[in-house]
Amino acid sequence: MRIRDHREDDTPEINLIPLIDVVLCLIIFFVVTTTFDARSVLKLQLPQANGTPAESQTKALSVLVNAEGRFFIDDREALRTDVESLKQTLVDVAGTDRTRPVLLRADGRTPHQSVVTALDALAQLGFSRVSIATAPPVQPAQAKAP
């Protein structure tokens, strides 16, 4: 004779650990593949000057020099800080178009040699439309008369 056990059968349950693994993998995937704005990474303090900005019909090639003297051409960084490395990066980004305007943005704390190196590389490659970016001078706050 068989005696039946009256215990409750195991109830089915949903295992959440694989679901959590998949969600974490998706979060990591989206974080890694998100594009970041290169300008938010570089904090430049442009030198100040009076003048009006020039209007251009074509998109200017952007050459950034940070405070440590490192070069960034559009969204690419030059591997080294010498003229040849900078020229190679310029050729890779700009191609053969030497009539394209160039906007040189150098931090106000940049060593002068880095700016001269950038201008030298641009001149050796034949870029003639080079502009240097500046910030407008800060106007002192006028005191209000009582």
UniProtKB/TrEMBL annotation:
Classification via InterPro entries: ExbD (IPR003400)
Secretion signal, residue range per the UniProt entry: none
Pfam families membership: ExbD (PF02472)
Cellular component per GO, a single term: plasma membrane
A GO biological process held by the record: protein transport
Keywords per UniProt: Cell membrane, Membrane, Protein transport, Transmembrane, Transmembrane helix, Transport
Membrane-protein topology: Single-pass membrane protein; Single-pass type II membrane protein
TM helices/strands, residue ranges: 16-36
Domain of life per record: Bacteria
Family of the protein in this entry: Belongs to the ExbD/TolR family.
The protein, known as: Biopolymer transporter ExbD
